[in-house]
Amino acid sequence: MIPNNTCRIPQSHFFKFGVYCTTITSITFNTDGRLETIENSAFYGANNYTSVILPASLKTIGSFAFHWNTNLKTFEIPNAVTSIGEGILNRARNLERVIANGNDAWVPLSLYNLVISLCDDTSNDGHGGDACIEGYGSRATEIIGHVNNTCGLAACVSPSTTAAAPITTAAPPMTTTTTAAPPTTTTTAATPTTTTTTATAPLFATPRRSPSHTDGDDSALRIHFIVGICMGGVLIMYGFAIVWWTQKKESESPNNPNNPDNNSRYVQNKLNF
Question: Which of 83, 113, 159, 271 has the most C-beta neighbours closer than 10 Å?
Fold first, then answer.
């Protein structure tokens, strides 16, 4: 439970020192209208919960905020969100449904980041774009119609919705009208009319499912670790160089009694005296 009076969730709050927080089984956000920002990597790798319904007050979702949440199935984005960082749902391989209600216009970069993340296929397991899109208003349709939707993101289809049986309306039976004159008979036949109505599936959702799969290595984390080791080595070498240089300067000082040059000058001064 995210407590009341929380205005932001800090960067990497549940991802400390390269260790995933696997004890979170559900997330319940406060409803006091204070939470506005989820910073970068806040829930990175915390992957034991299946649903995230963000509060209506939220405005900003940082980069990789929900990255690598492999059990996440449902993700709802409130209408007030205007800023979305890159990779927020990368490698969420079991994601089934994304809900985006409302008509507020997307910030172009935020919409781009969201679509690219939903189509993420960096793990090479072929699961990018498995989620379907649900919601009323223009925000859902803009996700589906985005130029970078190259993975086939589509509207959700309810499993209970099936095509209705054709509805047939029969015309009145054929009638015959005879005039008063005996030799002439006029017959008018009504043509049967058939009207067929097929129900249209609404914008609601049964996701396309994917086979099970395994996690890939987090290459970005390994790169950060290697860079950190290299920088640490450089700092250590720099420290040794400073100590060596300091000792060298002290040994060459005219006031240092251990300097052989100083001893030679002392003996020469005695002889001259």
Answer: 113
Q: Is 92 exposed, middle or buried (0-12, 13-18, 19+ CB in 10 A)?
A: buried
Residue identified by tokens 């859902």 is: 140
* Contacts of 90 by beta carbon, 8 Å cutoff, 6+ apart: 64, 67, 68, 117, 120, 122
Per the CB < 8 A criterion, the answer to whether 65 and 44 are in contact is yes
Using DSSP's 3-state secondary structure scheme, residue 96 falls into coil
Tokens found for residue 160: 């209970």
pLDDT value of position 19: 54
DSSP for 126-153 reads: S-TT--EEE-SSHHHHHHHT-TT--S--
Distance in angstroms (rounded) separating the CA atoms of residues 94 and 126: 12
Q: What angle do CA 81, 85, 87 make, to 5 degrees?
A: 120
Query: In angstroms, how far is the first alpha carbon of the chain from the final one?
Result: 90
Angle at 227 between CA 223 and CA 229, to 5 degrees: 120
Question: What single DSSP character describes residue 180?
Answer: S
Could you tell me which residues come within 8 angstroms of residue 119 by beta carbon, excluding any fewer than 6 positions away?
128, 129, 148, 149, 150, 151, 153
Q: What is the pLDDT of residues 57-80, one digit of tens each?
A: 999 999 999 988 888 999 999 999
